[in-house]
């Protein structure tokens, strides 16, 4: 009486597929954790965001108007300024006045950002405290 105990040749085959069930379980848990924690991270600090607005400003005689044309030329009122160093020297002379005048920057729509940035940097170097940008109001249709 012989009895065969063990496995047959069909059961001895090696399984070559990867079991992805644990991987899917871990990914679903991570997804749920991120979905719960992201809104808390984004809104944990109360911040008052700026709103877009247009202010009507009165043009005071003591305010300084600096303009930039489309080619990057700098103008002090209507007089052309040779370079930013000359602009800084002019701004330093008016920065010592009390009260200090505002600088209103008028930039052409097609002017390069660099040209307007040079004016802002010149105002910073001269010690000007308040800079405003003059724009046209939006067209309402």
UniProtKB/TrEMBL annotation:
Belongs to the ExbD/TolR family. The gene is exbD1. PANTHER family: EXBD MEMBRANE COMPONENT OF PMF-DRIVEN MACROMOLECULE IMPORT SYSTEM (PTHR30558), TOL-PAL SYSTEM PROTEIN TOLR (PTHR30558:SF7). This is Biopolymer transporter ExbD. It comes from Sphaerotilus microaerophilus. Keywords: Cell membrane, Membrane, Protein transport, Transmembrane, Transmembrane helix, Transport. The keyword Repeat does not apply. The chain crosses the membrane at residues 26-49. The lineage of its organism: Bacteria, Pseudomonadati, Pseudomonadota, Betaproteobacteria, Burkholderiales. InterPro entries: ExbD. The keyword Protein transport applies.
């Amino acid at each position: 009486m012989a009895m065969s105990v063990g496995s047959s040749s069909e059961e001895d085959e090696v399984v070559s597929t990867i079991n992805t069930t644990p991987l899917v379980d871990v990914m679903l848990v991570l997804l749920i954790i991120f979905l719960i924690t992201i809104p808390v991270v984004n809104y944990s600090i109360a911040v008052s965001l700026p709103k877009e607005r247009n202010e009507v400003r009165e043009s005071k005689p003591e305010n300084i108007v600096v303009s930039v044309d489309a080619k990057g030329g700098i103008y002090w009122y209507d007089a052309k300024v040779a370079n930013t160093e000359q602009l800084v020297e002019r701004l330093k002379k008016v920065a010592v006045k009390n009260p200090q005048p505002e600088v209103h920057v008028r930039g052409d729509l097609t002017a390069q950002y660099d040209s307007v940035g040079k004016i802002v940097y010149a105002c910073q170097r001269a010690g000007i405290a308040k800079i405003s940008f003059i724009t046209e109001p939006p067209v309402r249709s």
